[in-house]
Amino acid sequence: SMGCGPMKQVLRELSQKIGANIDISVVCGNNTELKSGLEKQYADNKNIHIRGFVEDMSLLMASGDLYLTKPGGISTCEAAEMELPMVLIDAVAGVEKYNMSFFVESGGAVTASTTAERCDLCLSLLKDDGIRDCMKKKLSEIKKSQAAATIYDIMKDYEKEVKTRV
Fold first, then answer.
1. CA 99 to the chain's CA centroid
2. What is the pTM assigned to this prediction?
3. Band of the pLDDT at 3, cuts 50, 70, 90?
4. Phi and psi for 18 in degrees, rounded to 5?
5. Is the distance from CB of 65 to CB of 132 less than 8 angstroms?
6. Sheet containing 67-69: which strands, arranged edge to edge?
7. Those residues with Cβ within 8 angstroms of residue 70's Cβ, 6 or more apart along the chain or in another chain
8. For residue range 88-134, what is the model confidence (pLDDT) as tens digits?
9. Backbone phi, then psi, for 155, in 5-degree steps?
10. Which of 63, 62, 145 is nearest to 103 (CA)?
């Protein structure tokens, strides 16, 4: 919703390297200044689609082959549910680092430290259906993990532990 992170740099890098058969949708969220600037900059590029806040994110995800995003909890869980492979950008410190570690270690996402490396990852993944299929499978396995039951069991054990301390 914020349109944060190095979106300008990533888009500049990708736009110079993509072929005519690749489309990029950029969601700027509520960042109207970013949206306006990118619309002007890429007005002549028919393969780049700049959007503001979207209510149909699930439709965009369903039509995508790859999701380049910061590892926010909602974004990554939606992508996992859609089995949409991710390239993650470390844009915001804090809990998102845990999300990134989780999805990278699970095999459903990849990351890199520089914009150029991230863009190269995106391009190589878009060319390799096999790797993306493996990532989709890993995301499918995450969905089957019974997360709600696991959280319940952890909280139940924690409640017992707290009661024994008192």
1. 10
2. 0.83
3. low
4. -75, 150
5. yes
6. 67-69, 86-88, 109-111
7. 4, 5, 88, 89, 90, 91, 92, 96
8. 998 776 778 899 999 999 999 999 999 999 999 999 999 999 999 99
9. -65, -35
10. 145
Type and span of the H or E element at 37: helix 32-41
Give me 92's structure tokens: 């915001």
Position of tokens 């110079």? 16
Angle at 77 between CA 139 and CA 132, to 5 degrees: 35
Residue 66 · residue 40 · CB < 8 Å = no
| Phi, psi of 92, deg, nearest 5 | -130, 125
Coil, strand or helix at 155: helix
- Coil, helix or strand at residue 60: helix
Three-state DSSP class for 14?
Answer: helix
- Whether 166 shows a pLDDT value over 80: the answer reads no
> 88 pairs with which residues across the strands?
69, 111
Angle 143-136-73 from CA coordinates, rounded to 5°:
55
Q: Which of 56, 11, 16, 15 is nearest to 34 (CA)?
A: 11
Determine the Cα–Cα distance for residues 33 and 31; give it in Å rounded to an integer.
6
Identify the H or E element spanning 148: helix 147-165
